[in-house]
């Protein structure tokens, strides 16, 4: 087997990193409410451009009203235009500094840009105005997760659950955080509650399957991924998870079928190509493996794992120069990976370049001495 571990998105659709749901629209009064109504309806129908046009007209008519800027910011957020969304939320808050929803969605926009401290500051402001606002707590918790502060995230989710014991998203995100920490029993308990509250939610089954997967309960994981697919046949992450579980069970044809389905749903998903490449490698089909790793790299040029695995596939074919080129590029992305130096050193040795081989083996030895776990946990390795 070429790879040491199957990569799997931990969070899935409910908590994809930096994707925070838009907070519910605030109530507007009188004329402004009536003027915004059509745009809000268009936005709810997913017609963001048409909604923006409506809000443009409202803003021309009532330029000092905060709500149309807020709503237009939501429309820009739906389109992925973070800069314009932020500009509108900023304007809305100048006009109405107590517009809580604008703080929450501005926080989400900052989070989308990776500006986690600014996002947390906005959630804090919303919570100052309403300490029982579970949406702000959940979004702040998710941002803490993104910052690598899971204990703070769990505290926020727990507080949201205390305020509203029916808050499904808080249970799900807390469960996903517990999964990330390896606290699988706590995670499973939260998933059980979430499924009682929302029994037909495909995302929850997918995430619980991910927890089962991490526990090594592959059959249970497959059952959860399968249920997610039954509930939502377009659930790409569930196909990815089930394919990864099938691969670990050496059921390669089923794994390939699931990765094929994931690619059909999203042809730009580098993870699907990467994982399918791993399966082809497991089967000894290095031509197809190389093709999939190449596509994964094209979609995500900073994927060191795909470069390393393609390099190993080239080694299997005795294409030493191509293997060395991939290992060298991977080291440019991760200079502290001792295993990659070992792999490149071996390729140099097979090629007959003993001096460069010795230099790489020495580098690998030095890194392992400095970092005893380097090259053993997640780095790809040959069988």
- Reading the helices and strands in chain order gives HHHHHHHHHHHHHHHHHHHH
Which structural category fits the helices and strands? mainly alpha
CATH superfamily of the domain at 301-383: Tetratricopeptide repeat domain
CATH class of the domain at 301-383 equals Mainly Alpha
Q: Give the overall shape, derived from the CA principal axes.
A: elongated
Count of individual beta strands: 0
> Span from first to last CA?
5 Å
Second-tier CATH architecture of the domain at 301-383: Alpha Horseshoe
* Main beta-sheet strand count, sense and barrel state: none
CATH topology of the domain at 301-383: Serine Threonine Protein Phosphatase 5, Tetratricopeptide repeat
Mean pLDDT: 90
Instruction: Bin the strand percentage.
Output: under 5%
The helix count comes to 20
Rg over CA atoms, rounded to whole Å, is 24 Å
Would you give an account of this structure?
73% of the residues lie in helices and 0% in strands. The chain contains 20 helices and no strands. It has a domain of 83 residues: Serine Threonine Protein Phosphatase 5, Tetratricopeptide repeat, CATH 1.25.40. The N terminus and C terminus are likely disordered. By secondary structure, the protein is an all-alpha fold.
Brief sketch in words of this structure:
The chain has 383 residues and is mainly alpha-helical. The protein contains 20 helices and no strands.
């Amino acid at each position: 087997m070429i790879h040491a571990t199957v990569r799997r998105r931990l969070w899935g659709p409910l908590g994809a990193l930096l994707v925070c749901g838009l907070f519910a629209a605030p109530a507007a009064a009188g004329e402004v409410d009536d003027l915004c109504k059509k745009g809000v309806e268009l936005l709810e129908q997913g017609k963001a451009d048409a909604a923006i046009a409506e809000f443009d007209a409202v803003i021309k008519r009532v330029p000092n009203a905060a709500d149309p800027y807020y709503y237009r910011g939501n429309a820009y957020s739906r389109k992925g235009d973070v800069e314009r969304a932020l500009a509108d939320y900023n304007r809305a808050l100048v006009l109405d500094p107590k517009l809580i929803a604008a703080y929450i969605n501005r926080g989400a926009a900052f989070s989308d840009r990776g500006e986690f401290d600014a996002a947390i500051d906005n959630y804090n402001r919303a919570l100052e105005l309403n300490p029982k606002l579970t949406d702000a707590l959940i979004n702040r918790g998710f941002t803490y997760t993104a910052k690598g502060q899971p204990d703070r995230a769990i505290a926020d989710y727990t507080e949201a659950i205390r305020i509203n014991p029916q808050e499904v998203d808080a249970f799900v995100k807390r469960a996903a955080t517990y999964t990330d920490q390896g606290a699988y029993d706590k995670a499973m308990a939260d998933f059980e509650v979430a499924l009682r509250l929302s029994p037909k939610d495909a995302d929850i089954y997918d995430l619980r399957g991910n927890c089962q997967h991490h526990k090594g309960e592959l059959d249970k994981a497959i059952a959860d991924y399968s249920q997610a697919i039954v509930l939502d046949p377009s659930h790409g992450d569930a196909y990815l998870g089930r394919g990864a579980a099938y691969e670990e069970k050496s059921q390669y044809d089923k794994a390939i079928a699931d990765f094929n389905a994931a690619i059909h749903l999203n042809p730009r998903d580098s993870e699907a190509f990467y994982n399918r490449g791993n399966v082809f490698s497991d089967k000894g089909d290095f031509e197809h493996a190389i093709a999939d790793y190449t596509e994964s790299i094209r979609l995500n040029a900073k994927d060191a794992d795909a470069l390393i695995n393609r390099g190993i596939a080239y080694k299997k074919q005795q294409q030493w120069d191509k293997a060395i080129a991939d290992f060298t590029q991977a080291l440019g992305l991760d200079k502290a990976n001792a295993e990659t130096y070992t792999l490149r050193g071996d390729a140099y040795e097979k090629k007959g370049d003993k001096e460069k081989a010795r230099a790489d083996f020495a580098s690998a030895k030095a890194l392992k001495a400095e970092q005893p776990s380097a090259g053993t946990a997640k780095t790809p390795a040959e069988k």
